[in-house]
Amino acid sequence: MARAVRFHRHGGPDVLCIETVDVSSPGKDEVQIRVKALGLNRAEALLRRGTYIETAAFPSGLGLEAAGIIEAVGEGVASFVPGDAVSIVPPLSMVRWPAYAELATFPAELVVKHPPELGFEAAAAVWMQYLTAYGALVDIAGLLRGDVVAITAASSSVGLAAIQIANRIGAVPVALTRTSAKRRALRDAGAAHVIASDEEDIGARLAEIAGSNGVRVVFDAVGGPAFEPLTAAMAPGGVLIEYGGLSPAPTPFPLLNVLSKSLTLRGYLVHEVIRDPARLADAKAFILSGLSDGSLKPIMAKTFRFDEIVEAHRFLESNDQFGKIVVTI
Questions:
Q1: pLDDT per residue over 46-81, tens digit each?
Q2: What CATH superfamily is the domain 2-126+298-328?
Q3: How large is the angle between the packed helices 127-134 and 277-293, nearest 10 degrees?
Q4: How far is it, in rounded angstroms, from Cα 237 to Cα 92?
Q5: Which of 2, 94, 113, 191 would staple 186 via disulfide (CB 3.0–4.6 Å)?
């Protein structure tokens, strides 16, 4: 028996409850983890509300990221033993493999021995953000030294990871945020330039920053009307990678910009990397190397206790956070 967060209907944070549930032993090629920390993601709020790409089966668990100590291993698992400190690459299904629990089971192929200098809270804040940013910027866009990359929703955990990855490569990260309130924090986090999209002309500022070369890569979580000025500032042959849809406004298709500059507009899910063993291996090597040399360092917004999961989800949906929200058990 162990405590787990579940919900029995779609809705706001208040539908989440902590229940005591039976826990099965890990099956073949599985490991069971005694969870010490959880990383929260917007996808979990979407599942809770019924607007995610996956459908909940009630009562449903949730959660994509965890770090802890291996409690037990299933048949066929030789690379881990009880007592190992590990973190989890987000599974393709959080309904099948929910992380919000004292004991959680995952496929062994998604378990990683994280660097020993990384505590459980930081380890729970690694994989979703860095895999998402790596897959877009490195794996798909082939970001190079000197490239100008525009990063929207820059104060999110993924946005901050993208800034760090761009700096590790030697690219020029331009952070877009709604207001000037987080400007200093974003500069301190490594952004070469910060644009407050509600206060400044996005297109003019990007043109000023990128000059005649233009912005080669746009990493966007927002969509909406900003597509026009973003694509207007892009370089010929540039790539816009869309991984979210935070804007409630319609997203126009910038036909003239796309045609005149031969732009690529591409939808992206981190699952592309996770389900491909070769791509995932390359991503893990890049991220673990960055964690070890200090060029990649998770930024945490706030830490909550397990019994504060409702308050943690309220904070998740407030958009006030700067970095990753972590829950400890």
A1: 999 999 999 999 999 999 999 999 999 999 999 999
A2: Medium-chain alcohol dehydrogenases, catalytic domain (3.90.180.10)
A3: 110
A4: 32
A5: 191
Give me the phi and psi of 234, to 5 degrees please. Answer: -80, 155
Q: pLDDT tens digit string along 257-280?
A: 999 999 999 999 999 999 999 999
DSSP strands (E only) in 152-243: 172-177, 193-196, 215-220, 234-242
pLDDT, tens only, 294-314: 999 999 999 999 999 999 999
Strand partners, 193: 174
- Topology given in CATH for the domain delimited by 129-271: Rossmann fold (3.40.50)
Identify whether the C-beta of residue 169 lies closer than 8 Å to the C-beta of residue 138.
yes
Mean residue pLDDT of the chain comes to 95
β-pairing, 264-267 vs 234-242, is parallel
Dihedral angle over CA of 296, 297, 300, 306, nearest 10? 100
Model confidence pLDDT, tens digit, residues 108-141? 999 999 887 889 999 999 999 999 999 999 999 9
